[in-house]
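To assess whether ligand presence alters the predicted conformation, the chain was also submitted together with nicotinamide-adenine-dinucleotide. Input:
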Amino acid sequence: MVFEMLAKRDKSHEQVIFCSNSETGLKGIIAIHSTALGPSLGGCRMYPYSTEKHALDDVLRLSEAMSYKAALAGLPLGGGKSVIIADPEKDKTPELLWSFGVHIESLKGRYIVAKDMGIVTEDLQYIGDQSSYVVGRPVQRGGLGDPSRSTAKGVYYGIKSAVKWKLKKDSLKGLRLILQGLGGVGSNLLELLSNEGMEIFVQDIKTSVIDEIKSRFPKVKVISEDEVFTTECDIFSPCSVGAIINETSLKTMSCSIVAGGANNQLSHTSIGKKLLDKHILYIPDFIINSGGLIYVSSYMSPKKSNEWIENKIQGISQTINKVCELSQVENVDTAQMALILAREKIKRSYLS
Ligand code: NAD
């Protein structure tokens, strides 16, 4: 099954590692897509996948996107990602995380783990007890902490660039935005957008999260999952799960721009062309959400300053403008254009 799945992909992965431990209940997969530009770095996602195939598919797609993210952010990093098949609310134990850390360490730095959905900085401390190839441990423990704020900042700049390009506006004032997912990225993004005079609609599957957001931002309007794709807006900002833009959601979507922090927003790259046909500007996820990767990469020698991080995150806007311009000139959708540019960059490094 694995080799079939790998063969179906445009670019095959360098290495896929299955990790298990019957004592701790660990069932995980580490996927290293490419180390052409440097060691692979990417988050670990803990999620109660319904099947192992679903988990494998997710980790393959996520790790591939990490290669492209690093390449277009101009970072000396490759693409990797890991998943643990477990429910973060029920199954997470120190023992499980320690046993996962042993597998990370065995790769001797070919894969560096960070946080993704279902994993918090404290979990990285446990993984880090067994491995030195961990980035984003709690700040109180001398780590870099949660990169979500930096990711959100990049998305914020990306939204502004998209609005300028598509709607020819310098301000977000009066625009309608739907924000899906109010976790690390979504809540930080909401904070950044909250003073822009926008009309903001939010949705999350967790009522506790919604309650907290409503108390912090009383002006936001809460909508249901179904309403996310039936409510007219200027900007749709997906900041939760992937594959949210698919054949079904496309039918009812009514927005001018898709610009959010979630990874793998399109169920398939062909959806990029369908968005273009509907005159919706799609800002490729692996460009707009690269702020967190930029932040965590700052630990690499020589260690980078806050000014370097800020400039690099602001640089996301230039990459977005370049992709928008080229996609117009070449008459291809932005998702395709971003892939072409990223693959070209990785290919050149293999040749040099
Ligand atoms: P998180 O776990 O902190 O938050 C995710 C939120 O989404 C939670 O509040 C959850 O309840 C909600 N959610 C889950 N399924 C949902 C659904 N079907 N509809 C609506 N809400 C749903 O995760 P995060 O760190 O904020 O990451 C969000 C997305 O951004 C993920 O796709 C992640 O891979 C991507 N991303 C995160 C970072 C980062 O720095 N954290 C960096 C790059 C990309």
